[in-house]
Write a structure and sequence with these properties.
single chain; 23 strands; alpha+beta; five-stranded antiparallel beta sheet; 22 helices; 603 residues; 18% strand
């Protein structure tokens, strides 16, 4: 067969007719459509999505290294440091690090050095997102061994950086734990709520106490560096920097010396001691036990031992100064006021007292089981006669007693800064009892309430506000911790009563100390004191273990300091358990303030 050469093929006429005319048109149309489609797509990418892609490219080229603000310091009323900042080293990662093949080496190595599960590290990075342009803190408070190990494996640990950061430190941790509170990294739930306020992943926030109440003042503003990086993520140059703005320093009304003595006086008993200025409500001390060390919350991870120290069965995180308990006989201040102001009992009233009284078919006993003979209002307060005040309660009735209980501020919060921690307490009444117990109010409820028992619940801080009324001449004050809180300092609400009522209140409270149940406070080591004891019936499980109360102020004629001591389930009486605590606090206070004026106590 003859083979055709290319020259022959070119010279031979093509006799095909099918498709010859349509092929060039099809090719032209196809080309036009493709060109138009590509042009439209390019226009969309450049015009519509251009800024977005440019931003993504820029975020890959430019990274932000955040700089945490230094939290404001906290000082006591005399300028002594209560909370400050230290500067441990922390470890950070770029979120995109764990998406690279090298993570199979970096992840396990980092987890082993830091003693943190690898899954926990990955969770933090995933929460930030692989495209995040900010460093994410993985661990803080690195010790020297960890830093050495990270440097040793530096060639393996790509995208791992060590930076110094500000961490909270409390030099008087345990003594001031419930006052200062603590800071802790935001939980995922808190972060969702706080993003709108500028908080970010890994940020810390006040979780309790002053740290929480004054978070906005203490926090400060984040700063940072904009850094240009190459394709491998290595920094090339700093493009810009915003200085972090430190938080504001604040000064509290707390006197750290009074606080330390109150903590020492309370000892290992569960309970609280509160000291305030009765003229304006400034809190000088607020101790609660059991306590905890707030410095442990500055760690990245809490050990099992750490958790046990704050989650014990006695609830160390609970501030007992703001928790509600039956006030016992300290409440006789209210019953006495209500009796005198009701008009049903004259100031010179004398009533017999008994070993017990049967009212409404129920027997109500006297605390000494014998009675004290005939008593007036001053003598009844002096000896804390239950049967005297039963008769006052029966005479004025439940509504009047409840009305005066509320006038003294019980049943609502005091206005103290720790809003979420402070209990309202409970002032029971007819409506409450029908709702809670499906029963009407009875004379027995009034009798129990007249001596601070029954369903009545008050916080030790509310009790301090109650004692401030006779101490300052008739005003409820607002307890507060911020020294410059002018609004709280000037807030005073008059509890209107006759001058004769106020006179008998103050005489009775002074007689308690000079000749009654609080004679332990009648000492030459301190100025004259006025006060009242209380012993609340309470059960711990199946064992009866009473609460002990005492409230007192001094000097009795012109008070400077008011102290309330409460011992939970102490098993003893207010005069024998709580009053000696107050004595220690007052001796320390007056002998430091007026050196040489009062003889030192014999040890």
């Amino acid at each position: 067969m003859a083979i055709l050469q290319p020259s022959q093929l070119l010279g031979k006429k093509d006799k095909r007719t099918v498709g010859r005319g349509s092929q060039p048109i099809f090719l032209i149309l196809f080309t036009l459509l493709m060109t138009t489609g590509i042009s439209v797509r390019l226009a969309y990418l450049q015009i519509i999505e251009g800024s977005s892609y440019k931003q993504q490219a820029e975020s890959n080229r430019v990274r932000m290294i955040p700089k945490q603000p230094e939290r404001g310091n906290i000082f006591d009323r005399n300028g002594k440091l209560l909370a400050s900042t230290r500067y441990p080293r922390s470890i950070y990662l770029w979120p995109m690090a764990h998406t690279k093949p090298a993570w199979s080496v970096v992840g396990p190595r980092l987890a082993k050095i830091l003693e943190i599960p690898q899954e926990e590290i990955e969770k933090k990075l995933q929460e930030a997102g692989a495209n995040s342009s900010s460093l994410i803190r993985i661990a803080r408070n690195l010790d020297e061994a960890q830093i050495t190990a990270i440097k040793e494996y530096e060639s393996e640990l790509k995208d791992v950086e060590i930076h110094t950061e500000a961490v909270r430190y409390y030099p008087h941790g345990r003594e001031l734990a419930h006052v200062l509170g603590y800071t802790r990294e935001l939980t995922p739930e808190q972060l969702k709520e706080r993003r709108k306020d500028g908080y970010r992943l890994g940020d810390v926030i006040g979780q309790m106490g002053v740290e929480k109440a004054y978070e906005k003042l203490l926090r400060g503003e984040w700063g940072g560096q904009q850094v240009e990086v190459d394709g491998a993520g290595r920094p090339l140059r700093v493009l810009g920097e915003k200085q972090a703005k430190p938080g504001n320093d604040i000064r509290l009304t707390i006197d750290v010396d009074v606080q330390k003595m109150a903590e020492k006086a309370l000892g290992d008993r569960n309970g609280t001691i509160i000291a305030i200025d009765p003229k304006n409500g400034a809190v000088l001390a607020m101790v609660s036990h059991p306590t905890f060390d707030p410095n442990i919350f500055s760690k990245q991870r809490l050990t099992q031992k750490d958790w046990e120290s704050v989650q014990g069965e006695d609830h160390p995180l609970v501030n007992r100064a703001l928790s509600a308990f039956p006030p016992a006989s300290t409440f006789k201040i209210v019953t006495k006021t209500a009796g005198l102001e009701s008009g049903k009992f004259a100031p010179n009233t004398i009533l017999p007292t008994y070993g017990s009284l049967t009212i409404g078919g129920t027997r109500f006993g006297e605390w000494n089981h014998a009675g004290f003979g005939p008593l007036g209002f001053v003598g009844a307060m002096q000896w804390s006669s239950d049967t005297f005040f039963y008769q006052i309660g029966r005479g004025i009735g439940g509504p009047t007693l409840i009305e005066w209980t509320r006038k003294y501020g019980f049943g609502k919060k005091t206005g103290f800064e720790f809003v979420s921690e402070e209990a309202r307490g409970l002032v029971p009444d007819e409506t409450w009892k029908r709702k809670a117990w499906k029963m009407p109010w009875t004379i027995g409820d009034t009798i129990n309430m007249s001596i601070g028992q029954g369903a009545l619940l008050t916080t030790p801080l509310q009790v301090a506000v109650m004692f401030a009324v006779p101490a300052n001449g008739g005003y409820r004050v607002q307890p507060h911790l911020l020294k410059d809180n002018e609004e709280a300092k000037s807030w005073r609400e008059l509890v209107q009563m006759k001058p004769s009522t106020m006179k008998l209140l103050r005489e009775g409270l002074r007689k308690v100390i000079s000749d009654g149940t609080g004679k332990v406070l009648n000492q030459p080591t301190i100025p004259p004191v006025a006060g009242k004891s209380g012993t609340a019936e309470a059960w711990k499980g199946r064992v009866k273990q009473n609460h002990a109360w005492f409230g007192a102020y001094a000097p009795a004629d012109k008070p400077e300091i008011l102290v309330v001591a409460f011992a939970e389930h102490s098993g003893g009486g207010g005069g024998s358990v709580a009053a000696p605590m107050i004595l220690k606090v007052m001796e320390d206070y007056f002998q430091r303030k007026y050196p040489g004026k009062y003889p030192k106590p014999v040890k």
